Amino acid sequence: WKYMTVANLANAMGKSVDHVFEVMMYVDNTVDYDKSTSVIDSLQVIQEIVKKSGMRARTVSPPDLSDPERINKDATKWPPPDPSVLVKRPPVVTVMGHVDHGKTTLLDSLRNTSVVKSEFGGITQHIGAFSVKLQSGETVTFLDTPGHAAFTAMRARGAKVTDLVVLVVAADDGVMEQTVESIRMAKAEAVPIIIAINKIDKQEADIEHTKDMLLPHGIQVEDRGGDVQAIPISALNGTNLDTLTEAIVLQAELMNLKGDPRGRVEGVVVESRTDLHRGKLSTAIVQRGMLQKGTVLVAGLAWAKVRAMFNDRGQPIQQAPPSTPVEVLGWRELPSAGDEIIEVESEKRAHEVMKWRQSVKLTEKQEAEREAVECKIEEHL
Ligand code: GTP
Ligand code: MG
């Protein structure tokens, strides 16, 4: 390691000096390097600049676009997590399973029961996430999207939103292709699984055989010597749904789920759509902080200044704490399912982040160039 000037670095990266200076905006401790001949005397700074360019020096991990500390330059503004302020939060449950095994029917039954019991009454429009308040007083948040799509998208973007998977397996059909796929996905994410053996009202239902069919896929239910809970239900008739929700609550208790209602808001987009009357809307799950009107958010290549928020019954709300499903109004573009949502301190910052993210959306060609640049930097070091 000898030395490298700003110009050397720009050259090695195949970028202009201006580009390097622009990137430096995002890197601390680069104020001294104000000329192209300035010597960058810290390897760490060089690596930071390379990393923030969307490139990767070998010793540096790939850029993490969702790193909140990075897009919130003024990180000190946000309080660090303090265990004493953490509050219990509802579990976020994704219902998965093979086609036609009864996922939607189950969610509808759970929701209708709770809607009927609630003071508001009536059934409202479908949104991708909703909360069910159980008789025991506990709340459970369900993700009601085509389970796979949302889960896959979130997984691809590294967003951990699901605490629990309810795997619906129809007792007349048994374990099928997507059942296996769902098991694989839940296991890959280390998310606990609860089995709902559905359609037990049907003549052909074979609960015991269904349990056996799960064994080769690493799901050992309780009466097969394992610790996975399996609840026989009829989503259609509402049989045993209270046992299922009890199992969910029990599992959630064991996980001791906590959320931090303070500080920078973090969340995940569940789905997005354009409403004829209300404009660009996204359904989101808040994971940290307290979302409220006026908050500036970035998600993927979209940003919003929250204009209004609605709960899963379409009613306006003022605040959304962790694990709350919420419809957010105020997006300039539509974010995608699975995009991580992060609060930034101002609209100006949101613009910077957008510009930044667009610039690092690398094409395949740039991807190849990147490899070459890595080698050059390696040589220089
Ligand atoms: P996809 O979204 O297409 O993957 O299907 P799904 O898993 O959401 O299944 P859905 O809830 O749409 O149910 C499929 C069919 O099974 C419907 O005709 C339901 O009425 C029926 N069904 C669901 N649950 C039960 C049940 O407990 N008993 C019986 N008999 N039929 C059920
Ligand atoms: Mg469905």
UniProtKB/TrEMBL annotation:
Chief place where the protein resides: mitochondrion
Transmembrane segments: none
Keywords: GTP-binding, Initiation factor, Mitochondrion, Nucleotide-binding, Protein biosynthesis, Transit peptide
Any one annotated GO CC term: mitochondrion
Disordered: region residues: 57-84
Keyword Repressor: no
Chain intervals with Basic and acidic residues compositional bias: 67-76
Family, as annotated: Belongs to the TRAFAC class translation factor GTPase superfamily. Classic translation factor GTPase family. IF-2 subfamily.
Protein name in UniProt: Translation initiation factor IF-2, mitochondrial
Included range, full protein: 91 to 471 of 718
